[in-house]
Amino acid sequence: MTVESSFSLLGTLTPQDISFVQTFENPVMSEFIDGAAGSVLVLGMITVAALLTYYRGWKTLWFDWLTSVDHKKVGIMYIVVAFVMLARAIIEGVLMRYQQSIAVNDPGVLTPDHFGQLFSTHGSIMIFFMAMPFITGMINYVMPQQLGARDVSFPLLNAISLWLTAAGAALVMISLVVGKFSTGGWTAYPPYTGIEFSPGEGVDYWIWSISLTSIGSTLTGVNFATTIYKNRAPGMTLFRMPLFCWTSLCTSVLMIFAMAPLTIATLMLALDRYAGFHFFTNDLGGNMMNYANLFWLFGHPEVYILILPAFGVFSEVISTFSGKTIYGYKSLVVATMSIAVLSFTVWLHHFFTMGQGANVNAIFGIATMLIGVPTGVKVYDWLLTMVRGRIRLTTAMLFSIMFLVTFVIGGLTGVILANPPVDFAVHNSLFLVAHFHNMVIPGVLFGMIAGYQFWFPKAFGFRLAEGWGKASFWCWSIGFYLTFMPLYALGLMGAMRRTVEWFRPEYLGWLQVAFVGALLLFSGFIFLCVQLVVSVRQRDQRRVPAGDPWDGRSLEWSNSAPPPEYNFAVIPEVSGQDAFTRLKEQGKAYASPTAYEDIVVPKNSIVAPVIGVGAIALGFALVWHIWWLVALGFVTIWGAVIARSFVTETERVIPASEVRADHEAWLQQVRECATTPREQEDTSANVGRAEVLA
Amino acid sequence: MKRQSLLHPGLNLGSTDEYSHDEAEPVIFGFWVFLMADLVLFAILFATYASMSVQGQAGGPSPTDVFDLPSAFIETMLLLSSSITFGMASLALKYKADRLHLVFWLVLTFCLGAGFVGMEVRDFWIMTQQGAVPQRSGFLSAFYMLVATHGIHVTAGLCWMIVMLVQLLVLGRTTEVKLRLMRLALFWHMLDIVWVCIFTFVYLFGVAL
Fold first, then answer.
1. Cys-Cys crosslink for A259: which of A218, A491, A505, B2, Cβ 3.0 to 4.6 Å?
2. CA-nearest residue of chain B to A224?
């Protein structure tokens, strides 16, 4: 990359960087796959645009969604991003399993470079653009309603965070068509990712997409923490909050403290690559192990950022579908807090082999094993919640139970890995790959799918089809065991991660089983999509206008489905744990409030999408050294922020009369609804008014 | 009465403007939380500097060779004084009904801050002339990263101050403007604290040890 080209209109970008041109010039299988992936992306976007035009959806999309600052819509958009990215990353996973299952003494279908891109995008997407948006979206949608709040504390900031995350995701998607992505794995360890060994644009794509989303997550953490501390309904003391709110709080605190090391590490790597600094280089005083420390100083708390909200979902789901209040509420709170604190004390177990000496390793090994204690407390609390409960095996509940079993197995292999001598033997092997998939798939993905099944009727007003959900559940569960149990064995046999070709024939059988498992996991995803389509088509028989299809326990079930923009016509008064169950038992649910007041809600704003587009331009321009566009992107982002600060009319008032009319009409509708006994939960008799047994 | 128990430092409009005072509660709290995240960022930079300042010199210049202590001392004085003048601005925000006092103290703060940034740029320029560029060694990379991140923060604060001066003239002393000035004050004082740490750990330790 010469100096002259750096200052041209398109920076270092050339026609050869477009993936279709590469496929045309070098028509081998690996390039075809790359070209096909790019085509799917482009065709997908054209299809979506065509459908929007056909159904005249552009106005709705813009005015009701993209410019919205309503926490519910922001939350749903986060989850849409997560689903799109999940589709890509899961296909990449299947493709890698396929490559490995045929590549014993055979080069297979993928070039090493393409394989490297696949494991880098698979990991980066799954963590940063699938799991993070999913949990952030889930918290966004549910947490303010559980607190009895009308919105998060800073609605516009919330939308900006969404757009920064979406901009990062967009950059990863663009890399499918324009140029290549990093081959340095999701952790991007230097010196391999330094300019000397990775001179192309790949690592830069990684750096800027991750930087954008890490800034977005920091702001999200600030927003959520402030909401939980300052925006609770009267009477909703901290120790009356549903557990999902507690886990959200811990996650936000972790985001506030743990995202900065990542931002700094990526910026330092960028300075090394762009400006010749020596943070992580081999020469002139650089120290690449600093990167490993910084990355995992973020990376380990990140694991708990992802897993704690899922723990919150499981607490809600298990308690609701067991028909019991959660067992050991305070112990669960304390365990959550302990995990949050301990998560900062274990980062070194990701590189026991660095050479820091046995004593340091021993301390971090013990700290790592300690995390098993509060996690064990949680598992027992969930089990004891089910004891003597009236358990209903809905899709969400099945995912939760399978989580319990599978997660405990993953935890046990984690304790094995926490032992430094054992870790030395299996470091960077498929044993490790099996272990962290064993934590993250049940711990995060099952939790998010369970939450999606659980709260979907609240968000869209109709229930998802249970049959397809259960089919999906069996595919995910069996697929998980078939895919990852062989990897434990392979790891113990000496197979290393990120290997494109094998030379040991005894691996073959295990790898083939793992590939079959991957296909099942993919079917699980397809069934989720089918479930969505089927449910949308049958929505009229599945409606739950009264808003409480599962006999829910917390406040989000006390309003209509979908809820009004302002969530609560009148802010509820809370008198104890399981606030809505109390109201139902005391017969105070669905009572008309004595008085209504005007409600102030934030207006839609164009600022967040403008910042998002500016961020995409900024990131893309930095990757390709298009300096004029860098300047333009930067000015757009900050110009939007400053311009916004001069806007004084940012809120609008919904008059009390309108609130009264809507709310009373809904209450009337609820009172006319027949109550549903739990046995008929999955029939059209369930219109969202639960039978109260107390 | 309820609000009395929820006072945060930096939230002090109570006796003269109760409405803004109440509005300020979540906003100021949120900003404290944001500052905490920002401080973590500086903590990481300090840790990096600590690990590289001695071991990352790579045969290049050492702190004693390149640091200009008198200049850093003048910068410290400029920034500390600017915190005092911002304090005066905060008092004017609370007690003076006119804009003149407030604008005067803000402009004075701006000049002191700009002086600080100017001095720092001059220091960097002289160091560059001596061959102490960030590309020379890990120590210098970490030094420039830490000190320049603080300098960029101060510059951002100065830009923010210009925006606030314009808003004072265009919008007047509205609740939003008051709340923004209160947050700018917190931001400015935090940068002061960070600089005290930089002066101590980077400059004084660097020259003394």
1. A218
2. B30
Q: How many CB pairs under 8 A join A and B?
A: 113
How many Cβ atoms sit within 10 Å of the Cβ of residue B65?
13
Q: Over range B18-44, report the average pLDDT.
A: 89
Are A222 and B29 a contacting pair at CB < 8 A? no
In angstroms, rounded to a whole number, what is the distance separating the alpha carbons of residues A184 and B96? 59
| Residue pLDDT, tens place only, A446-486 | 999 999 999 999 999 999 999 999 999 999 999 999 999 99
Provide the shortest C-alpha distance from residue A151 to chain B (in Å): 13
Residue A40 contacts B where some CB pair is shorter than 8 Å: no
Give SS3 for A271: helix
Inter-chain touch A221–B37, beta carbons under 8 Å: yes
Chain B CA closest to residue A226: B30
CA distance A188 to A191: 9
CB–CB of A186/A123 below 8 Å?
yes
- Nearest CA-CA partner of A322 in A215, A236, A417, A397: A397
**Amino acid occupying residue A78:** Y
Please answer whether residues A35 and A28 qualify as being in contact, where contact means their C-beta atoms are separated by less than 8 angstroms.
no
**Helix (H) or strand (E) run with residue A571 in it:** none
In single-letter form, the type of residue at position A70 comes to: D
**pTM of whole model > 0.90?**
yes
* Among A residues 133-162, those touching chain B with beta carbons less than 8 Å apart: 153-154
Q: Is the pLDDT of residue A4 over 50?
A: no
Condensed to tens digits (0 to 9), the pLDDT of residues A432-451 reads 999 999 999 999 999 999 99
Q: Do A261 and B40 touch (CB under 8 A)?
A: yes
ipTM of the complex: 0.94
A343-366 per-position pLDDT tens digit? 999 999 999 998 888 999 999 999
Rounded to an integer, what distance in angstroms lies between the CA atom of residue A554 and that of residue A560?
A: 13
Which domains does chain B possess? 26-51+69-208 (1.20.120.80)
Closest B-chain CA to A232: B26
> Rounded to an integer, what distance in angstroms lies between the CA atom of residue A89 and that of residue A117?
12
Burial of B74-84, coded b for 16+ CB within 10 Å and e otherwise, reads ebbebbebbbe
Q: What is the mean pLDDT of residues B18-33?
A: 85
Q: Which residues of chain A lie closer than 8 angstroms to B56, CB-CB?
A: 278, 285-287
Q: What is the DSSP string of A136-189?
A: HHHHHHHHHHHHT-SS-S-HHHHHHHHHHHHHHHHHHHHHHHBS---SSTTTT-
Classified as helix, coil or strand, A652 is: strand
- Alpha-carbon separation of residue B155 from B38, B111, B187, B191 (angstroms): 15, 12, 12, 11
A283 in contact with chain B, both atoms CB, cutoff 8 A: yes
Inter-CA distances, A282 with A41, A272, A286, A428, Å: 38, 11, 6, 22
Q: Contact B37/A259, CB-based, under 8 Å?
A: yes
Q: Cα(A159)–Cα(A511) distance, rounded to whole angstroms?
A: 43
Within 8 A of B145 by CB-CB distance, chain A residues are 268, 271, 277, 279
Find, in chain A, the residue whose alpha carbon is nearest to that of B170: A646
How far is B24 from chain A, CA to nearest CA, in Å?
A: 11
Chain A residue numbers with beta carbons less than 8 Å from the beta carbon of B167 are 645-646
Tokens, residue A273 = 């690559």
What residues have CB less than 8 Å from B209, skipping those under 6 apart? none
Nearest to A277 among B44, B135, B170 (CB): B135
Identity of the residue in B40, B45, B141 whose CB atom sits nearest the CB atom of A257: B40
Q: Which residue of A has its CA nearest to B6?
A: A230
Give the span between the Cα atoms of B147 and B195, in whole angstroms.
9
